[in-house]
Design goal:
Transmembrane segments: 629-649
Distance between the termini: 92 Å
CATH superfamily of the domain at 675-815: Toll/interleukin-1 receptor homology (TIR) domain
Organism: Cyprinus carpio
CATH topology of the domain at 675-815: Rossmann fold
Protein name: Toll-like receptor 4
Subcellular location: Cell membrane; Cell projection, Ruffle; Early endosome
Strand content: 15-25%
Number of helices: 17
CATH class of the domain at 675-815: Alpha Beta
CATH architecture of the domain at 675-815: 3-Layer(aba) Sandwich
Structural class: alpha/beta
Number of strands: 44
GO biological process, one term: innate immune response
Radius of gyration: 41 Å
Largest sheet: 25 strands, mixed
Length: 821
């Protein structure tokens, strides 16, 4: 068959289109020339247009059924390649020759049925190989040349033996083997030979396997950096036997127990963890899902640990245990009814007990190295805190007793705790017996949080806290000018939070001596003025939060003296006064949105407390309307004298408008209104006015008398005078019919401007706007004041729908009668 020239061109175009599908233009640039993502683009080949300098490529969730030597363009700098879930089934020999400098290769989730014997031989620099969920049944992989391999992740496969190939003994940098969620049930001594040879920096992950038996001695003389055996046993009996079989194993960090989402399990033998005694470990992370009606000996085999973390623990009591090397103890959360009697542990440095349920606390003692104590969130009730609860613990630097129920504080409560640097008591009711100097002696204290502690700062003075850097007192009560003496000794203060304290005024003396404050939080108070910001005491201030106060404006002299380093200023949720008397303040808000936090939440409350009109949208130009009008009048007068009659004719409406304004209006009280409403409309809309508006209003019950220019204006009288005398001043209400013809009509614009003038002079909302047809927002700006009027006032919209039509007439008549009241 012979093809014509046109058919050949169509054929070649189709071929080129198919050949170019999936090229580089469909990838996202993360870092130009270095990192690209082509994930989830339905591509069938690696884009050839990628720059040769690319170092990282995410090609996951595409379609590459097989990989061969030509599958990749030459990318000598490529180090990270992600081919997750690309439906890869075959990997041929020398597939990665063109990307041979890879250090990370991820093949997760591919149904690979064939690995070429030499498919990975080119990757001499590979350090991390991820073969998760690829259908592997054995660790006997052809990776002889990967001598720099550090991590091998082969989780979620069907591997039954953890025996590694013998040649991996030469992999001196190999440090992580991830075998999670496989099918390993038995571990023999021969399976761990290689682990014994590799060295002391190995991490082994066997979580979520189904271990049934470990041959005794299989892990003898093996040292692991981390050993993960979470949810790794078929039963608790198997767990106990397997742990006992780990005799001789040394582990730095041991991860044991169950995953948090698993159900709890009842055990009959509280000694189910005794097998841990055969393992030497430094740190243990235990997620407990087992519970028992009898006593559980959870810590019996942990006496030599340096760090113990128990999460989701179902222990109900913890007897005194003499730990030999324990430095850190974490218990969160548990079923303990009391904080354990921790004492006489000379090595303990950190104690954290978070139960999230009511507990008792009888104290801890004789812990000379203890620095960190966190007992927050335990609903504790302490009387005469705190020295008697922390006896012979002189080294405590951090103490967190927040989110408890009640703490009573007497005279010198922190005697013997002189080294405290952080004291956190927020959201805990404090009962102070002595206000003066209750923090006396804490000369090293840097952080103090007594927010929401029900303290009344009436007679409290902070003494000898020269190193205090952060003070948080939000949610308490201040009386009078408490700040003027409360802060006078805090010369090093950097952060001050006195939000939600009912403060109505801050005196000019409040921040004398606190010249280092950089972060000041005054949110949710009752402040109306911020004159204290003009003082030089706060020149270092960088962040100021005064949101949710009663601030209406900030004077210009204060704005001009704001700290020069101020970079974050929160004024949101204040009743800002958006009036012409505050143009300087509003202009400052508009010009400094870069430092204002949430500028879109700074609303004008001049019109209504519930107004959602943003201060940044306020038109400051409208405030100079009278000045602008005077200039326009002068220009018009000079123009009449100088320019030709053509220009005079062009501006005749403006001149008449000026003359009328100079003449002045008569108020409705000065003359009797002959009409209920004057209708401003374009002659092109006369049919609608006559057939719809006049018919429904004048012939309705009760009848409404309309003033229509073609019917009611006096003959022989100037149009402008008719508009003023008969229309605007002779009517109680003004109806404006807005349409495209209205926008284009000079007379309509003139009449609307006059109507606005009456509105301004009388300050009475006598204008009803009817939108006859949709008009683009930008076109409404052609009529002076119309766009703003539509934004700030409710208007009516004509519809031919019978139901909407009925509602329209009802609302219109109601508006007109409301004016007559």
């Amino acid at each position: 068959m012979i093809m014509s020239y046109g058919e050949w061109m169509i054929f070649l175009g189709s071929v080129l289109f198919l050949a170019s599908s999936g090229q580089g233009q469909e990838c996202t640039t993360i870092i130009k020339n270095m990192e690209y993502s082509c994930s989830g683009r339905n591509l069938t080949q690696i884009p050839s247009s990628l720059p040769f300098t690319v170092m990282s490529l995410d090609f996951s969730f595409n379609f590459l059924s097989s990989l061969h030597k030509c599958a990749f363009p030459v990318l000598v700098n490529l180090q990270v390649l992600d081919l997750t879930r690309c439906q890869i089934k075959h990997i041929e020999n020398d597939t990665f020759y063109n990307v041979k400098n890879l250090t990370t290769l991820i093949l997760t989730g591919n149904p690979i049925t064939y690995f070429g014997p030499g498919c990975l031989n080119s990757l001499h620099n590979l350090q991390r190989l991820v073969l998760v969920d690829v259908g592997l049944s054995s660790l006997q992989l052809q990776i002889n040349n990967l001598t720099k391999l550090q991590e091998l992740r082969v989780g979620t496969n069907n591997i039954q033996s953890m025996s590694l190939p013998s040649f991996m003994s030469t992999f001196k940098e190999f440090s992580l083997l991830d075998l999670h969620a496989n099918n390993i049930s038995i571990i023999k001594t021969d399976d761990t030979v290689l682990l014994r040879e590799i060295g002391r920096n190995m991490t082994l992950i066997l979580s979520r396997n189904q271990l049934l038996h470990i041959e005794p001695g299989a892990f003898k003389d093996i040292y692991l950096k981390e050993f993960h055996i979470l949810s790794s046993f078929v039963s608790l009996n198997a767990q106990k036997e397997c742990l006992e079989a780990l005799t001789g194993l040394s582990v730095d960090k041991l991860f044991l127990g169950s995953y948090r989402m698993q159900w709890k399990v009842k055990v009959s033998n509280g000694s189910y963890l005794d097998g841990l005694c055969s393992i030497h470990f430094n740190e243990i992370y235990f997620v407990q899902k087992e519970f028992s009606d009898s006593e559980m000996h959870l810590f019996r085999c942990m006496i030599n640990a340096t760090k113990i973390t128990v999460k989701s623990g179902y222990i109900k009591s913890m007897k005194y245990i003499r730990f030999h090397r324990l430095k850190e103890l974490y218990l969160a959360p548990t079923l303990l009814s009391a904080v354990p009697l921790i004492s006489h542990i000379p090595s303990l440095e950190k104690l954290v007990v978070r139960n999230n349920m009511p507990m008792n606390f009888y104290g801890i003692s004789d812990l000379p190295l203890l620095k960190f104590v966190d007992l927050s969130g335990n609903f504790l009730i302490l009387k005469d805190c705190c020295s008697q609860f922390f006896q012979r613990t002189p080294n405590i630097h951090y103490m967190n007793l927040s989110r408890n129920s009640e703490i009573g504080i007497a005279d010198k409560p922190f005697s013997g705790l002189d080294l405290l640097e952080v004291l956190d008591l927020h959201h805990t009711k404090l009962v102070l017996v002595f206000y003066f100097g209750f923090l006396h002696g804490l000369k090293y204290l840097k952080y103090l949080d007594i927010s929401y502690t029900s303290i009344c700062h009436k007679t409290m003075i902070f003494q000898d806290l020269n190193n205090l850097n952060a003070l948080k007192m939000a949610g308490n009560s201040f009386h009078g000018d408490a700040l003027s003496y409360l802060l006078q000794n805090l010369t090093g203060l950097n952060v001050l939070d006195i939000s939600h304290c009912g403060i109505e005024e801050i005196s000019r003396r409040s921040f004398i001596g606190t010249q280092k404050i950089r972060y000041l939080y005054l949110s949710q108070n009752k402040l109306m003025i911020l004159d204290f910001l003009a003082l030089p005491n706060l020149k270092q201030l960088t962040s100021l939060y005064v949101d949710k106060n009663s601030i209406t404006s900030i004077p210009l002299h204060v704005l001009q003296k704001l700290p020069t380093n101020l970079s974050e200023f929160d004024l949101s949720s204040n009743p800002i006064d958006c009036s012409c008397s505050q143009t300087d303040f509003i202009s400052w808000i508009i010009q400094n949105q870069n430092i204002l936090k949430q500028p879109d939440n700074i609303f004008c409350k001049t019109f209504s407390p519930s107004s959602d009109f943003r201060a940044t949208d306020f038109d400051t130009d409208s405030c100079v309307h009278k000045k602008r009008l005077t200039i326009v009048l002068s220009v018009c007068f000079v123009t009449v004298v100088v320019l030709s009659s053509l220009l005079v004719y062009r501006f005749q409406f403006h001149l008449q408008y000026c003359c009328i304004l100079l003449r002045g209006y008569r108020t409705p009280a000065q003359q009797e209104c002959s009409y209920d409403a004057f209708v401003i409309f374009s002659s092109y809309d006369e049919v609608w006015v006559m057939n719809e508006l006049m018919e429904n209003l004048e012939n309705g019950v009760p009848p409404i008398q309309l003033c229509l220019h073609m019917r009611d204006f006096q003959a022989g009288k100037s149009i402008a005078s008719n508009i003023i005398d008969e229309g605007i001043m002779g009517s109680r209400k003004i109806i404006v019919v807005v349409s495209q013809h209205f926008i284009d009509s000079a007379w309509c614009r003139f009449e609307f401007e006059l109507a606005q003038s009456r509105f301004i002079m009388e300050r009475n909302a006598n204008i009803i706007i009817i939108i006859l047809e949709d008009v683009e927002e930008r076109k409404t700006k052609k009529v002076f004041g119309l766009h703003k009027h539509l934004k700030n006032n409710t208007y009516l919209k004509w519809s031919r729908d019978p139901l909407s039509n009925m509602r329209f007439w009802k609302r219109l008549r109601k508006a007109i009668f409301a004016t007559n009241q």
